[in-house]
């Protein structure tokens, strides 16, 4: 007797073949095929449930349960129902149905024979290309696939049916930072970053608003779609920080190891950058992170994914997150390029601290911004910044109907998509001849695209390039002169 069921493979459920056979011996169940301790403990639940429901456990026969594929470590609560039904079918107590090869049986058993739907079924099972699912009592969750339900094991004769329902997450925009007042230049920065989703490095003295800017950004991002929300919920299961149905903001402590930041282990597990997928990863006090942890971020920031190999395991995790880093540039916490500040530390100490900045990592940040403690002039409320951004998004949606490039944020445009708006003359004359890297040039074009959006311009203009250089090139060069 062969039955199809499901097992856990990291954050998803994958098919497994449950093969059941009887052999002479003691009346017990023996699992083969790398079962974990949880599956082994289910033996007693299966025997108790069968007897409590008026069926008989095979006498003087040993039940062999082989789980294939054999090379995968098996971890699943839902195999209990599959094994119990397989025993009843194999022993002839229940007549097998013709559709047994096309169904996936996944349910958890109680000692009295109740059948429960495992919590991970509706979140982690992808029904595309598979058959129908038989499971247990519904816990009030909806799923995009239909499933047959057994309240008790004896309902194997007439299971009820729950029709598929579309997922509906109640997305709620957080209000963190929206009631605060921001200096005009910080308000413009928040609008630019939230609209274009540009990675950001904030450097400046303590108390100048770096962390406030970083924690306000999630409330200004575009609302996630239902599919994005489903991915976010799956990536953040069990995370205490994840309290709102919105794009996640992940704030790892600077003592976090490289494995904790990008993932690893055997088998590989997700890191903080994957938890921040479709949201924001805030690296507060960047220079306090271990150098190896900093350098490990270079590839995922560039490719929006992280590929990990540990032994025979190869995993690829998503990492499309907006990375925002904050840092001081001096042990006193006050100095920024161009500022006249009396620092009590020695020049050697200051240089040693600033040398922790990795040039290749800084090059991954599209925008570098120096904050100041006291800034005069008009201020703008967070709610007004959000209203402004929403108006620009309407403008972009209108453009996206005739130009598909505008369907994605400017921070993800490719070089050829951006260069199409500028003539070769502008490309040669506007950029500094000693431009530090192709990546700086791409970052400048992306920021220029967002600046054009803020002015509701369909094409990038030379003045947008000149303004973008003040955020992408000149601050970067100032940091390079510090020794990074």
Could you characterize the architecture of this molecule?
This protein folds into three domains: 2-162, Ribosomal Protein S5, domain 2 (2-Layer Sandwich); 192-378, Rossmann fold; 386-476, no CATH class. Helix content is 34%, strand content 19%. The protein has helices at 37-52, 79-90, 121-124, 184-196, 210-220, 226-235, 258-262, 272-275, 291-295, 298-303, 347-354, 359-362, 382-400, 415-419, 424-430, 438-454, 462-472, 474-480, and strands at residues 2-9, 12-24, 29-32, 61-68, 103-105, 108-109, 115-116, 132-135, 147-149, 160-162, 181-183, 200-203, 249-250, 263-264, 269-270, 280-283, 305-310, 313-318, 322-327, 367-370, 379-381. Helix 4 crosses helix 5 and helix 4 (184-196) packs parallel to helix 13 (382-400).
User: Could you report the average pLDDT, rounded to the nearest whole number?
Assistant: 86
In terms of per-residue confidence, which ranges show pLDDT below 50 for 5 or more consecutive residues? Answer: none
Number of domains: 3
* Intertermini distance: 65 Å
CATH topology grouping of the largest domain = Rossmann fold
Which term fits the overall shape?
Answer: elongated
Got a strand count?
21
Write out the strand line-up for the largest beta sheet, numbering strands in chain order.
13-16-19-12-20
**CATH architectural group of the largest domain:** 3-Layer(aba) Sandwich
Q: What share of the residues lie within helices? A: 25-40%
Per CATH, the class of the largest domain reads: Alpha Beta
CATH-assigned homologous superfamily of the largest domain: P-loop containing nucleotide triphosphate hydrolases
How does the major sheet shape up? 5 strands, parallel
Structural class: alpha/beta
Give the radius of gyration: 28 Å
Number of helices: 18
Content of β-strand: 15-25%
